[in-house]
Structures are given as C-alpha cells and as structure tokens.
Please model this.
Amino acid sequence: MSFFSGLSRPLRAAGVALIGVAVVAAVIGGVTVLNTGSSSDNNAGPTSSGEPSGPGGGAPSSPAPSSAPSSAPSTAPSTTSSSAPPSSAPPSSPAGQPGQPGGQQGPDQKASNKWVTLRVYNNSLIQHLAEQAADDFRRSGWNVAEIGNYAQGVIQRTTAYFRPGTDEEAAAKQLAAEFGFQAQPRFEGIQNSSPGVIVIITKDYQAGRKGS
Model:
C-alpha cells in the first residue's frame, strides 16, 4: 500500500501537486545551473590569441620598426677627394717673381727684397765709407742692420755677398744692380757669419750715390 492510500482525496491531490511543483523546480534549477556553467566556460577563455606571454604575464610587445633601413647609403660628402682641382697658382719663374717672364722681378718682389737684412763693412782706408754707403742704402729703402769694418783680407771690388738658394740672393743682386757693384756667393771666410746680405765696401764705391 502506498503512502497516498491512507490519505483523503484532498490531501492526496495536494501532495501530488506539491510533488509536481518540486519536480518542475528541480528541472528549472538544473537548466539554470547548466546555462550558468556554459556561460562561465565561455567567459573563461584565453585572453590572448595563442601568442606566448612575455615576462610578467603580458603579451610581448612587437619591436618598433627601424626609422631607416640599415642599408641606406650615407648622404654625408666625403672629406677627401681624389679629383680635387689642381692649384691655380702659376708656376714660379726661376730667379724671379712668380708669373714674371724671363726671370724678371715685379714691383712687389723688389720691395720685398729690400727688407732682407744688410750688413755693411768697410774694407778701405777711407774712414766712415761704410757709414756713407749704409746711408745711401737706407735712403733707397734698404734694411741696414749692422755697420763695421772687414779686416780679414783685401777685397778688390765692392761686393754684395749672399747665401745661394736663400732670399739673400735676389736681394744682393737687386742691390748690386741699383748701386753699380757686383753680387757673389759668400766665400769661405764669411760662410758662418750672421744671416743677411754682407756688403763689403772698397775704395771704388762712390759715396753719396743716390739709388735708382
């Protein structure tokens, strides 16, 4: 005999209704639980699209593209050039100012020669002849630095002595041409004397001569 046999009809009807409500509630609860679990599973998916996570759990950042390709040629000009134009300075003429034909000296070179040091020495018995010659040279614009006597030998003619290959050579030749005497390379006795044109004055020098 079942549980409902001993109950009255109304009670049996109420019990059946309660059981039906309980069954419906259970079915609804089961469906809700299943829907909730499915929704939770869908929301718990991976946060990335399969990319490996970097240090600290985050996705690694992609490297920034280079601002310029490494193979781009440099635009800076080269500091040296094998095709540099040759110097435009004209070749110097022998024994003269650059650009002067036939070895002739220009006015600038002649003026420059006069700044070469002159050392004037008397080799005659005429007193103060070196001083007089030095005054003539200075009036013509020459640079006389020393005046004295030369007593180490007898010089036959007034001569301007120079060291070959120096600026003394052009100066000595210009001085000699201006005052009418000769110019020669230094001889052994004055090779080690101080730099400058050495002018040894003898009795043939005409004192007071005005330079041309």
